[in-house]
UniProtKB/TrEMBL annotation:
GO molecular function, one term: metal ion binding
Lineage, broadest ranks: Bacteria, Pseudomonadati, Pseudomonadota, Betaproteobacteria, Burkholderiales
UniProt superkingdom: Bacteria
UniProt-recorded name of the protein: Molybdate ABC transporter substrate-binding protein
Family: Belongs to the bacterial solute-binding protein ModA family.
SUPFAM superfamilies hit by this protein: Periplasmic binding protein-like II (SSF53850)
Oligomer and partners: The complex is composed of two ATP-binding proteins (ModC), two transmembrane proteins (ModB) and a solute-binding protein (ModA).
UniProt xrefs under Pfam families: SBP_bac_11 (PF13531)
Any one Gene Ontology BP term: molybdate ion transport
Species whose genome carries this gene: Piscinibacter gummiphilus
């Protein structure tokens, strides 16, 4: 007996069992969005079963460089306007498709156990705070916000020598959580992620509001799904997730 019918039947079986083809939608998002976007992605997929969301987190500046160099990305969600401005200037995103979708706050955190808490920014100049985690201002938005408030307070030259540079806000958070530094600057939403390991000493008003923009990447291979995802983060279900993690309205 020929084995061809059996092979044909097996092939047909594979076709029957094969899942619906899923298009990958790559979302490059600021590290501070990690927890919220990991929860939002399956909600989006539930409404768009033909699309699989691939999440790529990092410092906004680093993500921008990846996209500019041709790394695959369909959506860019930045933690600051400056990174998105640069993306727009390089025609990586279209101005008309850019949306602000959440806001955040800048805080000073210290290890939860046994660490002194500064009462004011100027206290960080004291010897008790010899190592302070700050995102690298050149590529990390939280670092730029931090440098801005310290410069405005006339403290940057005092604090900079104590700076332990972080590649992204979550690295700054980890440094403080592990007690490797005496204090650090992160977003309020990041501090909440490790509320058992860090405590918020100060909430620092920023001169520029901490507003997160999001936009489809102009050269992204999945433009239709990218526009759907950008629209989805502004819907009540996605905004509820973001609010749960402490993000505010834009």
């Amino acid at each position: 007996m020929s084995r061809t019918p059996a092979r044909l039947a097996a092939a047909l079986g594979l076709l029957v069992c094969w899942p619906v083809w899923a298009a990958d939608l790559t979302v490059s998002a600021a590290a501070s969005l990690t927890n919220a976007f990991k929860e939002i992605a399956p909600l989006f997929e539930a409404q768009n079963p033909d699309t699989k969301v691939q999440l790529n987190f990092g410092a906004s500046g680093a993500l921008l460089q990846q996209i500019a160099k041709g790394a695959p990305a369909d959506v860019f969600a930045s933690a600051d306007q400056e990174s998105m401005d640069q993306a727009q200037a390089q025609s990586l995103v279209k101005p008309a498709e850019r949306r602000n979708f959440v806001s955040n706050s800048l805080v000073v955190i210290v290890p939860a156990t046994g660490a002194p808490s500064p009462k004011a920014l100027a206290d960080l100049g004291q010897p008790a705070y010899g190592r302070i985690a700050i995102g690298l201002p050149a590529s990390v938005p939280v670092g730029r916000y931090t440098k801005g408030v310290l410069e405005k307070a006339g403290l940057w030259t005092t604090i900079e020598p104590k700076m332990i540079g972080a590649q992204n806000v979550r690295q700054a958070l980890d440094y403080v959580a592990r007690g490797e530094v005496d204090a650090g600057f992160v977003y309020g939403t990041d501090a909440a992620v490790m509320a058992d390991k860090v405590k918020v000493a100060l909430t620092v008003p920023t001169e520029v509001p901490v507003l997160y923009p999001i936009a489809p990447v102009a050269s992204g291979p999945n433009a239709a799904a990218a526009r759907k995802f950008v629209a989805f983060v502004l819907t009540p279900p996605a905004q509820a997730v973001l609010a749960k993690y402490g993000f505010g309205k834009p």
